[in-house]
Design goal:
Layout: H1 3-12, E1 16-21, E2 25-30, E3 33-39, E4 48-52, H2 55-61, E5 67-69, E6 80-83, H3 89-105, H4 109-114
Antiparallel strand pairs: 1-2, 2-3, 3-4, 4-6, 5-6
């Protein structure tokens, strides 16, 4: 997944906002909370993509080929993983989609409702 593909995918998810911060990283948020970051490039075609995971997802991905605990975030006990090697766009997309869902679910009900996230419809960006 390239940086452009990352931004297009995240931008298609419901109730997202985009900022560029942290030395030029593309940071995507839902309800003001970060769910995905693209920056600290490994290469132009293989940028570092960081996303939040569940506890189980973190355990499964932290030693998986192409992934690692996210620098800075994981060292502070947060369950964030960074894609740091070759992976498929579908694999990364599914992790970003799960991260969006995890972060959205953690928002207060009032915020989820205001953003249209409590309508019982699962985000399907990028799915055919």
């Amino acid at each position: 997944m390239t940086r452009a593909e990352f931004n297009a995918f995240c931008g298609a998810l419901p109730a997202t906002t985009h900022v560029v911060q942290w030395r030029g990283s593309d940071v995507w948020k839902v309800g003001g909370k970060v769910f995905a970051i693209c920056g600290w490039s490994v290469s132009d075609d293989n940028p570092g993509i960081t996303f939040k995971t569940s506890d189980m997802g973190y355990e499964a991905l932290r030693d998986a080929p192409g992934f690692r605990p996210a620098p800075y975030l994981a060292s502070r006990g947060m369950k964030w993983i960074q894609r740091c090697g070759p992976t498929t766009a579908d694999e990364v997309s599914s992790h970003i989609l799960a991260s969006h869902a995890i972060v959205a679910a953690g928002l207060p009900k009032r915020t989820r409702t205001a953003l249209g996230l409590d309508q019982g419809v699962r985000p399907t960006a990028g799915r055919k």
